[in-house]
Write a structure and sequence with these properties.
Two copies of one chain form a homodimer.
Chain A (H helix, E strand, L loop, with lengths): L5 E4 L3 H12 L4 E4 L7 H5 L12 H13 L4 E4 L2 E9 L2 E8 L2 E7 L1 E4 L3 E3 L17 E3 H9 L14 E8 L15 H15 L4 E6 L8 H11 L4 E13 L2 E8 L4 E7 L1 E6 L1 E3 L1 H10 L26 E3 L9 H23 L3
Parallel strand pairs in A: 1-2, 1-7, 2-3, 7-17, 9-15, 10-11, 10-15, 11-12
Antiparallel strand pairs in A: 4-5, 5-6, 8-16, 12-13, 13-14
Helix pairs in contact in A: 1-3, 1-8, 4-5, 5-6
C-alpha cells in the first residue's frame, strides 16, 4: 500500500492552491514552508495589488492561507527546509529541518512550488545605478510604495512629477545570461503605471520598452486603458544609462521609433526586474534529482502538453519554479499538479 | 447522494486532458464531442507541429485520444451536441442530440472545453484580399502546407522565394471589435517561419509585427533561433494593403522602425489570424447560463486566482473557450478544472 499523502514544498500561490486542492479531493496535503508564515512572494515582498484584476494582494493571499489553515486535511510545517530525500513514487522519505531539528516526512508524491526570485539590478546592470541613486528603484520597491499609499521620491519624500519604467532589466539579455522573457513585467509595469497615475494625477508616466508583451486579455484590460484612460506614455526605446543631474535623474538612450537619441529627466526610475529561479528552487531540484534548464529553472517534461511533470516519477513542479509565470499560469499549473500527483499515487494503490 | 460523474464538453486538448484526469482520479468522465472523432482543432485543422516544442501534432493528439479511448472510466459520445440543461451542482440533467436522437445525461458537474475558432480574414479585413488572391493564406492554411511537406505557392505550385507573415489579423483591432491580443499568433508564426526556412532554404521569410509577444521561454526557444539560426527577418511595421502585380503580391504599408513607407513583393503572404470563440462556446455558454465577456468568450470568475470557475456553480470552463490560450495554458487549466469540479461534487457527497 503506497503512501497517498502529497508533500507540497513552498507556501506561495502555487503551494497554497495545491494544498487546498489535494485536501478538497480527500487526500492529505503536507505543506512545508521555509518562512515563519504562508503567503509566498506576494506576502514576503508586500505586493499591493494583483495583475491584471488589481485585487488587493493581502486580502487575496489571506483567503488562500485561511483555506489551508482551517483544513483538517492539510498539515502545515513552517520554518521548515527540505534537506534530503530517499525512496520513490509511493514511498518517499523526505528529510526536513524544522527549528533546528531534523525530521522525516513520509509521502507518496511531491509537488515543488518553490517559486522565483526578483532579478537583482545591481548584479550586472551597473549602468542603471540601482545601488547608487535613491530614486532608481525596482518594480518590487514601487509595489511597496503603492501598498503604503504614499508614492513619493525616496530621496526627498516629495511627490514625483515624472516617472519612467525601464523594461527587460535582467531579461532578454545574453550578457547577463537570461535570454528568456520574464513574461509578467510588461503587465505589472502597466498596472503600476495606472496606479501611479491614480495616486499622483499630476505625474507623467513613461514606459520604455522593446515589445509590450500584453498578451491575451491583458491587452484590452490593462494596455488600452493605460494608454487611453490613464495617458501613460509608451515609448519603444532602449535606456543605456542613468546619471544624476542636480535633483533629477537623466535617462539616456535611444528612442527606436523616432530613431533619435533621447535624454530625458525623471524623478523616479523604476527598473522592471525579471524573474530568476529562487535559491529554494535550485536546492530542492538538486535534492530530488530533478533536471534544471540552463537558467536553473526546473525543467518540465512533455513539452506543451504537460506543464508539471519532471524527469523524476512522483515529483511534480508548479508555478514560477518552472520558469516565468503569471498568477494564472501558476494557479492553473497547481491544479494540474494536484491532478497528476494523485493520479500517480493512485496508480500504485488502485488495481488497474 | 450527488452524481459524481463529470461531463466534459469538447474533445480537443482541454477536453481530452480533463477526461483522462477525471478517470485517473477514479471518477467517471462523460466526454461529448460534436464531430465524429476526437482531437479538436489540432486534428480538424490539420496542425503540423505543436508550438513551441515542434512535436508532431498528429502523434501528440493521437496519444491523448488513445488515453481516453482505452479507459473504462471514460464514456465517449461522438456526433453529439448539447441542446439543453436542467438541474444544478450534483444533479445536472443535460440534454444532448446524438445521431438525430435526443438523450439525457445525468452528471454532477460540467467542464466546458469548446475552444475557439480561427478569425476569418475575409470578414472585415478586405484590404488583405484573402478571398481574392490565391497566394494570400492564413496560419491555418500554411500549417496544412507544412504538414503535407510541400510548401508551395497555391497559385502555381512553385516554391516561394519570398514569404511574409502579417501579425494581428483580427486581433488588437477596435474596428473589428477584437481589442484583445490572441496570444499565440506571434509564436506560431515564428515556428512556421522556421519550418519554412528548413523546408525551402532559398526562401526569404519576413514577419511584420506590432510587438513580438514571445513571452517566457518562447523568447529563447523560438524567437532567438528564428533570428540567429534561421535568419527570419522581423520588421516592426504595419501592412495596410495587398495588391497583385504580375505574378507577385505587393505588400504596402509602413516600416515603423525605419519610419518610411514600404512596398515589398512577396510570393506568399500569411495572415496571422487570431482567436475568436467557437460557435459551440457561445451556444453551450448560453445553455448553461454561463456569463460571456464582451467578446463572447466564457468569463471565468475569481480573477487571476481562479482560471476555470464560472458564475454557475458546478459549471467550469477550460482552455480557449475562456479566451486566447496557448497549449500550456489549456492543459494546465484542464487540470485545474478537473480538481475543482471533483472538489465541488465531493462537497455534497462527503460530510464536512
Amino acid at each position: 500500500m503506497a503512501n497517498e499523502s502529497i508533500l507540497v514544498i513552498g507556501g506561495g500561490p502555487a503551494g497554497l492552491e495545491a494544498a487546498r486542492g489535494i485536501a478538497g479531493l480527500g487526500y492529505k496535503a503536507i505543506l512545508v514552508e521555509k518562512r515563519g508564515q504562508l503567503g509566498g512572494t506576494p506576502d514576503a515582498s508586500g505586493y499591493a495589488a494583483l495583475t491584471p484584476d488589481m485585487r488587493d494582494a493581502g486580502e487575496a493571499m489571506g483567503e488562500m492561507v485561511a483555506a489551508v489553515e482551517n483544513n483538517s486535511n492539510v498539515e502545515i510545517w513552517l520554518n521548515t527546509t527540505v534537506t534530503g530525500s530517499e525512496g520513490s513514487l509511493g514511498a518517499f522519505k523526505v528529510k526536513v529541518r524544522k527549528d533546528g531539528k531534523d525530521e522525516v516526512i513520509d509521502t507518496g508524491a511531491v509537488i515543488i512550488c518553490t517559486g522565483f526570485t526578483h532579478f537583482d539590478p545591481g548584479r550586472e546592470t551597473q549602468k542603471y545605478g540601482y545601488y547608487e541613486h535613491d530614486d532608481v528603484i525596482t518594480l518590487v520597491d514601487a509595489e511597496k510604495l503603492l501598498k503604503d499609499g504614499n508614492f513619493v521620491r525616496p530621496s526627498n519624500g516629495e511627490a514625483p512629477k515624472r516617472v519612467c519604467f525601464i523594461q527587460c532589466v535582467g531579461s532578454r539579455d545574453r550578457q547577463i545570461g537570461n535570454e528568456y522573457c520574464s513574461k509578467v513585467c510588461c503587465g505589472i509595469s502597466s498596472k503600476q503605471a495606472i496606479e501611479i497615475r491614480e495616486m499622483v494625477p499630476d505625474c507623467k508616466v513613461f514606459i520604455f520598452y522593446i515589445d509590450m508583451r500584453m498578451y491575451g486579455f491583458w491587452e484590452n484590460e490593462i494596455y488600452w486603458p493605460a494608454q487611453e484612460k490613464f495617458k501613460v506614455n509608451y515609448i519603444k526605446g532602449i535606456a543605456t544609462e542613468i546619471i544624476k543631474k542636480g535633483d533629477s535623474l537623466i535617462v539616456k538612450g535611444e528612442d527606436t521609433t523616432m530613431r533619435r537619441p533621447m535624454e530625458v529627466p525623471m524623478d523616479i526610475v523604476i527598473l522592471a526586474v525579471g524573474m530568476e529561479p529562487s535559491e529554494g528552487t535550485k536546492t530542492v531540484a538538486d535534492i530530488f534529482g530533478v533536471t534544471k534548464n540552463k537558467y536553473n529553472f526546473i525543467e518540465t517534461t512533455g513539452g506543451a502538453l504537460n506543464t508539471v511533470s519532471t524527469n523524476v516519477e512522483g515529483v511534480f513542479a508548479a508555478g514560477a519554479c518552472t520558469g516565468p509565470a503569471d498568477l494564472e499560469d501558476t494557479i492553473s499549473a497547481a491544479g494540474s499538479a494536484v491532478m497528476k500527483s494523485i493520479v500517480s499515487v493512485r496508480k500504485i494503490t488502485v488495481p488497474a
